[in-house]
Design goal:
heterotrimer; B: 485 residues; alpha+beta; Arc Repressor Mutant, subunit A; elongated; C: 95 residues; 3 strands; 36% helix; flat; ligase (chain C); glutaminyl-tRNA synthase (glutamine-hydrolyzing) activity (chain C); asparaginyl-tRNA synthase (glutamine-hydrolyzing) activity (chain C); transferase activity (chain C)
Chain lengths: 490, 485, 95
């Protein structure tokens, strides 16, 4: 453990600017922590040599006065982003040995800003999961443990579980995540860090292994709101290579952290308080509301009537798109091939061997809901309900500026819990999925600890392309929460 | 006369609908920046997008959209300002994404029409159902290795227009005329080169039959990827007869995809397509709906060339050509242009006769193309001028034309070199006539006795005496005077 | 809605995923559970609602017709499990 690994990304940046540390020093410190925390299985691929070479180049840039916004800052990249010359797995066996000859736009943007990648982070296979347990490389482990049972391994959440674990364990200053139904926000909540899924279209999807194209969105995961603001600024931007990327100027997100939220209206949706919501979650939510009130914002009860249909809608739309997006993994041009006597046999064997059970299940469901005779009943119906869900938010945002909800219905669970029924597992994303379906920005920040010592997150949801308000409100809540804890042993 | 198949139980009518895949003329592919040229090294015109690599995304090529709209306008079709790209999901070795990006329930072009020019000069209108944009697949090559198929993705992602006719065609001949006309329109528009050998235009034929008088639509079979107009016609004919035989022997036709074996002149079931396909179309979430402005359409409309039907009407009105001649001349833009160059400022009928007659014959015989013709339009025009000013008789002109084909020289030069100028000097012609009359007093008498048919023989003799150079009209006139005394 | 074994087999064939006989019954149960779960959407009145296939509310951006890519056959083939003479290769497809 080194002091350098306990800096926030913003603090490390400021030290670099002042010449109080170097990119090489920072990188070395974090590489040491990556090695020290290997048991968390946060990384699928470590690239320390590359990172050190980049750190040297970064220090040279700084000497020449050409340093970028994130120059010299060690980060990690979710292994769903294609990285030129570095193995990319999507945590699946089917991509075995795949080395992309191209770089995703988002990881490329970070590189251009000078950020230094220490490697590729673990995730649920093809980002399908809420626990990281579906990774073909074994699960990443949450650095947090229960006070009552410190020996029990907990999940970091998913799918960006490796990213969350690495940030929480101080292995990196920040990490990229992707979020399709909660894959940034839920692991951020489980690991006591901050993460934001920006508005759909804010970050390019080019070069990110696709799960569900109409929902997938990249975002930053870091230890503070400011760190996320800095990182999102470097990641975002219009990309002509992604037809769904939006041609808007990237605002200075960091500048939005004014601390002044007086007069802002904060929506509190009644539907996010279902029967059986745990008292702990409910309490932390109430605390959040109180902090905002204290800061001069006005809580407003709102209705999002179609909330309960978000989960079933998502579990039609996302698998349908996934079943098509994952058709390209056929053992022909890249990845793993299992020989077969015929072409079809080769496909069927390669895909059976390459995809894990959760991915297979989702491909099968997706295939089914798109198939002849079922399309209207399932897929078309879900797309209609999706519009109703988006409309709920649109109407709510006519009266409120931001919406506050819990991020997840529970703190991190044990590695050996919640495994039986996929539908129960999916309930983890019940609070994050509606935002994804509506394409809105959603941020999770740690708001406190459970009685058993585990982090609990709150979610702030904003208007389309109004991440600035989300960051501003999050900044105020962060100060009020005073959550500067780190997991035991970190 | 309707085309019918005479079966044992009566006469049967054929119902044909054609789906044409026309490769869009563009530099780059529909959704990537890779080139589209034919015949490149394997996998050299492939981007990561075309090869379906992880994380790759499509971005549409504006010119391909323009070309589809242009073609739609050329087919007098409805242009849909909002259209949607959908994924057609199926697994095949040359389909890297595992789906084809196509358009399903919201194509860019809706209903239109195409006018068939029938052999008797009449026309018939065939409905166009729709036109949509889609990606081509790559190519599987099965004959390079005993146990393996080789995959080349150069074509993968090239833009195609699928143009679907209504089931309005009733004979193999009409199917042929439809394809010829469609190709002609596409070439006029510059949206597809129409080359069926290279596969830039491919045709699937949907064929069914029904007893004459019936209006039902029976089960159809789809004959895939036939690569010449002649084969399309053969395939339809074979398939229709097969249907009649099956029905008449008490059987049923199963809806299926069939392949035409040009060697045997037969269609056969494609077993690989047997197990029911379920394409699971859904809107491509990587592509938003394609929304185009009316102004975009209007701009394309303003730049449309004169199309074959309009040109044909103009040729008939402006040049007084009959429907058949006009139809033949406008079938290719280049032949229409050739004709107009020849006809400009000249007798259009004479120009038409020469282009349709000797010129087309020479073109066929020489194996040349109209872009590099055996006789240039300028030379053919100059030759017609020599006919008109009396320098050449029709007969001499044929000789001059043959020499132009042979030497490529200008007609005036050939007339000069070979002394082919028509003799119009009445003195010289009269001398020749006198000589012939003097040598054949008995025949002169016969004519005078009323056997006027012999006059033709005298004309021939005079022409022979002048080596064909005498102006035939003058010979006739002077001979008549002299014989009658 | 519940799926039987033969339905699961048909879906798996469509999705080109080989399943062992012993996998069919458990999967039929899991998939049926999921379908039962999503079944609740039928309660929602969606008359007159347009399906929403994307949240992005913009037109489709277009690219100029320029050749900017390709000529990278080596990279295209670099990750291939099997290739020969510049082609990808697969078990022979009999047409």
């Amino acid at each position: 453990m080194s002091e350098l690994t306990h800096l926030t990304l913003a603090e490390a940046r400021d030290r670099l600017v002042k010449g109080e540390t170097s990119a090489v020093e920072l990188t070395r410190a974090h590489i040491a922590q990556v090695e020290a925390k290997r048991h968390l299985n946060a990384f699928i691929t470590e690239t320390p040599e590359r990172a050190l070479a980049e750190a040297e180049a970064s220090d040279a840039r700084r000497r020449q006065g050409t340093a970028g916004a994130m120059d010299g800052l060690p980060i990690g990249v979710k292994d769903l982003f294609c990285t030129e010359g570095v193995r990319t797995t999507a945590a699946s066996k089917i991509l075995d040995g795949f080395v992309p000859p191209y770089e995703s736009t988002v990881s490329g943007n970070l590189k251009k800003a000078g950020a230094i990648s220490l490697g590729k982070l673990n995730l649920d296979e093809f980002a399908m999961g809420s626990s990281n347990k579906t990774s073909a490389f074994g699960p990443a482990i949450n650095p947090w443990t229960r006070r009552s049972d410190p020996a029990a391994k907990l999940v970091p959440g998913g799918s960006s579980g490796g990213s969350a674990a690495a940030v929480a364990a101080r292995m990196v200053l920040g990490a990229t995540g992707t979020d399709t139904g909660g894959s940034i926000r839920q692991p951020a909540a489980f690991c006591g860090i901050t993460g934001i899924k920006p508005t759909y279209g804010r970050c390019s999807r080019y070069g990110i292994v696709a799960f569900a194209s109409s929902l997938d969105q990249a975002g930053p995961m870091a230890r503070t709101v400011r760190d996320c603001a800095i990182m999102l600024g470097a990641m975002a931007g219009f990309d002509p290579k992604d037809s769904t990327s939006v041609n808007l100027k990237v605002p200075d997100f960091e500048a939005a952290l004014t601390g002044d939220i007086r007069g802002l209206k904060v929506g509190i949706p009644r539907e996010y308080r279902p029967d059986g919501l745990s008292a702990e979650i409910s309490d932390v939510w109430e605390k959040g509301i109180a902090w905002l009130k204290d800061a001069g914002a006005e809580p407003v009860e709102i209705n999002l009537p179609h909330t309960k249909y978000a989960l079933p809608t998502y579990y039609i739309v996302a698998p349908a798109e996934a079943s098509s997006n994952l058709a390209r993994y056929d053992g022909l041009r890249f990845g793993q091939r299992v020989p077969g006597k015929s072409l079809d046999e080769m496909y069927a064997k390669s895909r059976a061997a390459g995809f894990g059970p959760e991915v297979r299940r989702r491909i099968l469901i997706g295939t089914y809901v798109l198939s002849a005779g079922y399309y209207d009943a399932y897929y078309a119906k879900a797309q209609k309900v999706r519009r109703l869900i988006a409309e709920d938010f649109r109407k709510a945002f006519e009266t409120v500026d931001v919406i506050l909800t819990p991020t997840a219905p529970s703190p991190a669970f044990g590695l050996n819990e919640n495994t039986d029924d996929p539908v129960t597992m999916w309930l983890n994303d019940v609070f994050t999925i509606p935002t994804s379906l509506a394409g809105l920005p959603g941020l999770s920040l740690p708001a406190g600890l459970s009685s058993d010592g585990l982090p609990l997150g709150l979610q702030l949801i904003g208007r389309p392309f109004d991440e600035e308000t989300v960051f501003k409100v999050a900044g105020v809540m962060e100060s009020a929460a005073g959550f500067d804890l780190s997991p035991e042993g970190v | 006369m309707a085309y019918l198949i005479e079966g044992e139980t009566g006469a049967w009518e054929i119902v044909i609908g054609l789906e044409v895949h026309a490769q869009v003329i563009s530099n780059a592919k529909l959704f990537s920046g890779a080139a589209t040229t034919f015949g490149a090294e394997p996998n050299s015109q492939v981007s990561f997008v075309d090869a379906g690599f992880p994380g790759m995304l499509p971005v549409i090529n504006e010119v391909c959209v323009e070309q589809a709209v242009r073609t739609g306008l050329g087919l007098k079709a409805k242009i849909n300002l909002t259209s949607v790209f959908a994924r057609k999901n199926y697994f095949y070795a040359d389909l890297p994404q595992g789906y084809q990006i196509s358009q399903y329930d919201k194509p860019i072009v809706g209903e239109g029409e195409l006018i068939l020019d029938l052999a008797d000069g009449s026309t018939r209108t065939v409905g166009i159902e729709r036109l949509h944009l889609e990606q081509d697949a790559g190519k599987s090559i099965h004959d390079m290795h005993p146990t393996k198929s080789f995959i080349d993705l150069n074509r993968s992602g090239v833009a195609l227009m699928e143009i679907v006719s209504k089931p309005d065609l009733r004979s193999p001949e009409e199917a042929g005329l439809y394809l010829t006309k469609l190709r002609s329109i596409l070439r006029y528009l510059g949206t597809c080169d129409g080359n069926m050998q290279e596969g830039s235009m491919r045709c699937d034929a949907n064929v069914s039959v029904r007893p004459v008088g019936s209006t039902e639509l029976r089960t159809r079979c789809e004959i895939k990827n036939v690569n010449s107009i002649r084969f399309v016609q053969q395939a339809i004919e074979y398939e229709a007869r097969r249907h009649v035989e099956v029905y008449e022997s008490g059987g049923e036709i199963r809806q299926e995809t069939r392949l035409f074996d040009s060697g045997r002149g037969e269609t056969r079931s494609m077993r690989s397509k047997e197990h029911a396909h379920d394409y699971r179309y859904f809107p491509d979430p990587d592509l938003l709906p394609l929304v185009i402005e009316q102004a975009f359409v209007d701009g394309i409309k303003a730049g449309l060339p004169e199309l074959p039907d309009e040109k044909k009407a103009r040729f008939m009105a402006e040049y007084g050509l009959n429907a058949y001649d006009a139809g033949v001349l406008v079938a290719e833009k280049t032949s229409a242009e050739f004709f107009e160059t020849v006809a400009k400022g000249r007798d259009p009928k004479l120009a038409c006769n020469w282009v349709m007659g000797d010129f087309f014959a020479a073109l066929n015989a020489s194996g040349k193309t109209i872009e590099e013709p055996p006789v240039t339009a300028a030379n053919l025009g100059a030759m017609i001028d020599l006919i008109t000013d009396g320098t050449l008789s029709g007969r001499l002109a044929k000789d001059v034309f043959a020499l132009m084909v042979e030497t490529g020289k200008a007609p005036a030069v050939l007339v000069e070199e070979r002394g082919l100028k028509q003799v119009t000097d009445t003195g010289a012609i009269e001398a020749a006539i006198d000589a012939v009359l003097a040598a054949n007093p008995d025949k002169v008498q016969q004519v005078r006795d009323g056997k006027t048919t012999l006059l033709g023989w005298f004309v021939g003799q005079v022409m022979k005496a002048t080596q064909g150079k005498a102006n035939p009209a003058l010979v006739n006139e002077l001979l008549a005077k002299k014989v009658q005394g | 809605m519940s799926l039987d074994i033969s339905a699961v087999r048909a879906i798996a064939t469509l999705a080109r995923i080989e399943l062992g006989e012993e996998e069919l019954a458990p999967l039929a149960g899991e998939l049926s559970n999921i379908l039962n779960f999503v079944e609740q959407l039928s309660e929602v009145n969606t008359d007159g609602i347009e399906p929403m296939s994307s949240v992005a509310d913009l037109g489709l951006p277009m690219r100029a017709d320029l050749v900017t890519d390709g000529d990278i056959a080596e990279q295209i083939l670099a990750n291939a499990p099997e290739a020969a003479e510049g082609f990808f290769t697969v078990p022979k497809v009999v047409e």
